Each structure stands twice: as structure tokens, then as C-alpha cells.
Amino acid sequence: MSLNPVRHITIDCHDPHALARFWIEVTGYLPDEEPDDDEVLITARVPDAPGLLFIRVDDAKVVKNRVHLDIEPPAGTRDETVERLLAAGASIFEDHRAPDGMGWVTMRDPEGNEFCVERSAVERGLSTP
């Protein structure tokens, strides 16, 4: 029995397959997709972590997300992760990095959904490289 009550985090989108591929790049999750399906689930490599479920919808995103994901880089730095995600199709929405290295970057995925990239555990002094 899972102790985590959150099974999936669902994201409405125009192209679930393309958006799932972007989020696989962000998270390292594993795909579970059918080519003609209007839904794509990607799952974590660790037990009990919620999956990300992308569902095709016709309506466009028009306002800021009410819920977003905060991404902690599992390897490397916040800034390296931001650069990698820019190359994968993300854009910077708001940059909250401070000269002293603190802060985060609010980004948008290819369909405009906001998410934040925080400093890694190493950058926060919580683990060693």
C-alpha cells in the first residue's frame, strides 16, 4: 500500500506527447505512452512518487498557473539546469536569482506552464558533490 495519496499531477495541454517529452528532460521520469492516445503518463524511477499525466484539451492556457512544480536539480547546479531547460524549449518567466547565489528561476514549459528551478541540495549545503 502506498503512503503517498497523490497518484498523478495532471497537466492539460494541446500536445501531450511533446509536452511529456519536455518533462522527461526536466525530471528524468520514464514514459508510458501510446502514439494515438490523448493522454501520456510519465512516472518516477522511485516508488510512491506521483506521476505526471498530460491530457489533451482544446482550450488555451490564459492565466498564471494556480499550482506549479518546484524543481531541485538532482545533479549539477540551478544555473546549469536553467541553461539545459532553455535548450530543451523552456523560457524564463521571472528571474529571482540574487548576486549572492540565492534565489530561483521561474520558467515556462513549451505550452506556457510555469515551474521553478531552485538551487540544488549541494548548492544549499545539504549534501556533498
UniProtKB/TrEMBL annotation:
Q: Which InterPro entries match?
A: Glyas_Bleomycin-R_OHBP_Dase, Glyoxalase_6
PANTHER family cross-referenced by the UniProt entry: CONSERVED PROTEIN, HYPOTHETICAL FUSION PROTEIN
Alphabetical list of Gene3D superfamilies matching this protein: 2,3-Dihydroxybiphenyl 1,2-Dioxygenase, domain 1
Q: Where does the Glyoxalase-like domain start and stop, copy by copy?
A: 8-117
Q: Give the classification, highest ranks.
A: Bacteria, Bacillati, Actinomycetota, Actinomycetes, Micromonosporales
The protein's name: Glyoxalase
